[in-house]
Design the sequence.
C-alpha cells in the first residue's frame, strides 16, 4: 500500500508534521557508490532552491512554497550503506521535519479544507493528523526524490538518463514567460496548473510486459500517484503527419527515447484564504518528483 | 506479469491464433449467482455485434473488424462455479479461437508490421507467434471482458455501476456523426483515434490509498494496459469556473461519481496495406474493455 | 491466494469433481523445448502407475488410491507454446476430470467427513462443493505436477535436478519393507503417515534472501502447502559429530546439495468407513508433488 | 525481499553494526492505542533480561549473549502514531546500535566464520559488512519483535493471543533442568539446539486459504525465516490413539488452538574459538521472535 515496485521496491513513510519522513529502498544492487550530492541537488530542485534550466532569465527560482524552500532536507542514512557504497541490503533513510510549525495548523483542527483529503481521510481512518495534512501532503514527496535519486544512479550505470522539464503553466508554453505568469497568479492569490514532460534516454529494447505490466501502464501508475497529478499520456502524437515513437510499442520499450507528459492541477488550498504556505503552481516543484517516479519504474526490472 | 490485482486477481493467457484465450479470476466472493447473458452481452459489444447507445441513428453498429464480428466468443467455464453460483475458488474460463485463419498470417511470417509489437517481441523473447501477433492483439481483450463482467456483478451487489461511452472520434465529439465519419475513414483505408469516457457510480467514500495506490493511479495502470491506449485523465477540470469533483480526493474516493477519460490511438496496421481484418477505430470496441478494467480495479478492494 | 511465485508464477484452479483441474504458469523463459513425456511420467508417478525406484522388489507399485490410478490425466495445452516450444507467454493447461463419479459423493452431501476440510470450507465460503471435497482434494495436485514438470525443465538447462524419495512409512525406514507394510495397513482399513526426502543438486551459491525470503522459508512454504504435509525440516543434523550442510547458509544456497524432509500425516478419511477411494498412505504419491513444489521455488529466481 | 505480508506488511532494515536496525509496519488499523511497555517487555525477553515463565527456579534468566543483555534497545518511533495512537499510515521505527563494538569484529575482517553466512554473502553481493555479520545476525530480530508486538496488539482486540515457550534444549524436555544444562554447555564452550512451541488461541474458523496460502504454509514460511530455525511442524500427532487438532484443517483455521513447534540448531560460532558474544542456545531468546512472526502472519488477514 505504501510500497511501489517488485524488484527495486520503495516503501515510503512519515507524516508531514511528524518526526520525520523517510523510506526504505530494497533491491538496490550492491557495490554502487552513491553520489550524495546529486541526491541533495534533486532535493534542492524539489524545494525550489535551485533554478530549473530554461525557466529563468533573472537567475531566480520560480516562486514556490516558502516552507519547502526553508526546510533543510538533511538526509540521515540508516542502513544499507558502508562507506557510501551499497551493501545490497535495504537502504533506509529519514529526513526530519525541522521546519514543522504545528501552531499554523492547530487552527485548522476542525476545519476541512476544500479540495484537501482531510474529509476522506477521516472517513477512511476515523482519525487524521490535522498537522499539515498528515500523509496527504507534498512533504511526503521528499522521500520519493531520495529513492528516485538512487534509482537514477542505478540506471546511470547502464547509460540511462531520466530528465523532466516544465513545459506548460496554465495555457502558457513559452518557458521564458513562466516566471512573470507565476508572479501574476501569486499576487492574485490564485493558483494554476501545469504540465511536466519527461524523457528517458538509453533504455534498451525489451523492457516492459505485453499485457498488464505494459511499460506505459507502470509509468502511468507511478506518475499518477504524485499528489495533484491529473493526467498521463505517452507522447507519440503525429508530428507533421508522421507518427513519432514514444519509445514503447505494445507495452515494451523499442530503444527510442521514452517520452511522456503529465498534468498537475491548480493547488486546492488558495493562499489568500488560509494564509498557508502552499505553492502557486505545484507542477513547478513536481519536475524532480516525476523524474524520481519514472526512474523507480525503469530501475524496477 | 500477466496478473492484475491483489484481492480480486485476474490472470490472462492465450495467443490470438492459438487454441484459446482465457483467464483465471481469483478472489471472487462465494455465493454470487452469475448472470451469463450480461457477460455475453459485453462480449457482443466488444465484437461490435450490438449497437452502443447513442452511436447510431440507423440501428446499425459502427464499423469494426470483420474478424471480431464473426468470432463466436463462446465461453467454456472450467472451474469455480457450481450450478452457476461462485464457490469462492478461482474461476477459470476459455474462449476458443474458432475464427483463426493462420493462412492469412502465414504471409506475414517474416514481415515486421509497422507499429506492431512484432519487432520488440522478437527482441525480448527471441521468438514470436507470427500468427496474428500472438499476445499483442486485440483478441487478448476477450478474456478481460469476461473477467470484468464478473467484476461488474460483484460490484452490482454493492450498488456500484461502471459505464463507458465513446465521446470522441478524431476531433469529432458529436456522437450522431460518428457513423458517417468512420465510414469515410474506412473508405479511405485510414484509421482514426478516439476517446472513451467512463463513469463509476455508487462507490462509497474511502476506496484507495493515500500514497502509491491512489485510486486514480490504479485506474490509470489498468486502463493504460489496454492495447492502443495512449492517455488517461481524471475529469475534474473546471466547469464554468467551478471545480467539479472527479470522485477522488487525495487518492481516495469521496462518494461522488468517479469519471475518467482515455484516448486510443489510430490503428497501427492500415487496412489497405495488409488486407488484414483490423479496426478503423479501435476506440469503438474499447468501451466494454475500459469498463472491464475499471470494474476489476474497483472490485479489487 | 491460488498463485505461488514472483517471477515464475503458478496459478492453480479446478475442483476435483468439476470440469477440469488446471493451471497457468507464467514467467517461463521463451524457446524452451518441452519434453511432454517427462511431464506425463511425473503424472504417472503421482497416480501410482509407475514404480518409484527402490520401493518394490516385485515390480509392482505401492498400493494407492484406485481413482488416482484409473484417471487418465491427459493434458490439454491451451497457450504459451508453439510447436512444443515456449513463447515466453503464460502456459495454460487443463486436465479434465474424466473419472469423476459424483454419485459416490452425493451420499456425502450432508455429511461432514472427519478430518476433511468440509466444515471449515462451509464456514469460510458459506458453500462447498461436496463433490469430492472441491478444492481440498488430492486431485488438485495434478496441476502442481504439470507446472513443476515445466519448472524442472527450466532448471535442467542450468544443470539443476530435483529428486525426491519416500524414506519412511510409519516408523519403517527400510524401503524394501514398504510394500508389505502398506498391504498390512490397507487390509486393516487403516492409514499411515510417511516421510519424503528431497535432494536438489546443482544450485549455484547465492540463491535466496538473507531475511524473510530465506531459501528454507520459501521451500517450507511451498512444501507445507501440499495437502496432508505436517512438518518440514532442512537436513543438516550432525552426522557422527560432524555437521553436514543442508545446502543453505543464512538463507542462501552455498553450492552444496540442498536436502530437506517433510512428513505427511495418515489419511483423514478411513477407507472402511466411507467406502471411498482414498490412499492408505498419502506420502507415497506425494513424492513427485514435493519435487514439483521444490522445483517451482528454485525456478522462481 | 525484506518485506513479509500482504495486508499487514512488515519491511525490515538495518545492519547489526550499522547506525540502527528498524522497520516499517504498514496496514495497521487506525485508532489502535499502542501499549509501548508490552513491546519493551518483549524486547527484554528477546535480550534475555527477563525470566521466561517456567524456566527458572532461582529467579535468574537463562544464560544468553552478553551483547544482547547489555544492549539498551530503545525504540524511536518515526511515523504512523499521534499521541500513541495509530493513524493508519505506515509505522516506522528504529533501534540504534548503541552497543556495537566494531573493534571486536575488525579482527574478523578477512576470516570466514564457519557456519556463518559470510561466505555466501560475499558470493551473492560481492561485498559484505564484516561488522558483526551485517544482516545475517540475531540483531536483525529486534525489529521483528517490535513489529510482532504491534501485531499482537492488533490481535488482542479480537481476543487472539500468541504464546511461545521453550520446550526442549538438546534432548532435555524437563524445563526445570534447562538452566543447569545450559550452564554445563556454556562451561564446555559448546552450544546446543532447542525447540520452541507456540500456541495461538482465539482464532476464529476460516483463516487461511485452501491451496498455496494454507495457514500452516504461511506460518512455516514466517518461522523458518528466523535465523537458525531448521524445522517446523504443526502439532496434531496422535495422543493416546486420538488425533488432536492443530487448529488447522485443509489449510484453514477450525477454531481450535493453533499449535506448532520449531527447532533451532546449535549456534554456529563456538564461543571458545572467537571470544565472541554469542548465545549458547539461540532457542532461548527465540521465543518472543517466534511469537512475533506468528502474530504477523495471523494479523495479516
Sequence:
Amino acid at each position: 500500500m505504501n510500497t511501489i515496485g517488485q524488484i527495486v521496491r520503495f516503501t515510503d513513510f512519515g507524516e508531514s508534521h511528524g518526526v520525520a519522513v523517510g523510506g526504505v529502498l530494497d533491491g538496490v544492487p550492491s557495490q554502487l557508490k552513491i553520489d550524495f550530492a546529486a541526491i541533495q541537488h534533486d532535493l534542492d530542485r524539489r524545494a525550489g532552491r535551485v533554478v530549473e534550466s530554461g525557466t529563468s532569465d533573472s537567475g531566480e527560482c520560480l516562486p514556490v512554497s516558502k516552507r519547502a524552500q526553508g526546510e533543510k532536507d538533511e538526509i540521515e542514512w540508516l542502513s544499507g550503506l558502508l562507506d557510501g557504497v551499497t551493501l545490497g541490503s535495504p537502504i533506509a533513510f529519514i529526513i526530519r521535519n525541522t521546519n514543522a510549525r504545528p501552531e499554523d495548523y492547530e487552527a485548522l483542527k476542525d476545519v476541512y479544507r476544500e479540495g484537501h483529503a482531510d474529509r476522506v481521510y477521516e472517513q477512511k481512518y476515523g482519525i487524521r493528523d490535522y498537522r499539515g495534512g498528515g500523509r496527504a501532503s507534498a512533504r511526503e514527496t521528499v522521500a520519493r526524490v531520495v529513492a528516485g535519486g538512487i534509482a537514477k544512479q542505478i540506471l546511470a550505470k547502464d547509460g540511462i538518463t531520466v530528465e523532466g522539464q516544465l513545459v506548460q503553466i496554465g495555457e502558457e508554453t513559452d518557458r521564458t514567460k513562466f516566471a512573470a505568469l507565476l508572479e501574476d497568479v501569486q499576487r492574485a492569490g490564485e493558483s494554476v496548473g501545469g504540465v511536466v514532460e519527461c524523457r528517458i534516454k538509453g533504455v534498451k529494447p525489451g523492457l516492459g510486459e505485453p499485457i498488464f505490466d505494459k511499460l506505459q501502464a507502470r509509468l502511468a501508475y507511478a506518475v499518477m500517484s504524485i499528489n495533484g497529478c491529473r493526467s498521463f499520456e505517452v507522447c507519440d502524437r503525429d508530428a507533421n503527419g508522421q507518427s513519432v515513437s514514444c519509445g514503447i510499442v505494445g507495452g515494451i520499450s523499442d530503444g527510442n527515447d521514452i517520452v511522456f507528459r503529465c498534468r498537475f492541477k491548480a493547488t486546492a488550498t488558495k493562499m489568500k484564504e488560509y494564509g498557508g504556505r502552499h505553492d502557486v503552481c505545484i507542477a513547478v516543484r513536481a519536475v524532480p518528483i516525476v523524474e524520481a517516479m519514472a526512474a523507480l519504474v525503469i530501475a524496477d526490472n
The two ends of chain B are 20 Å apart (CA to CA).
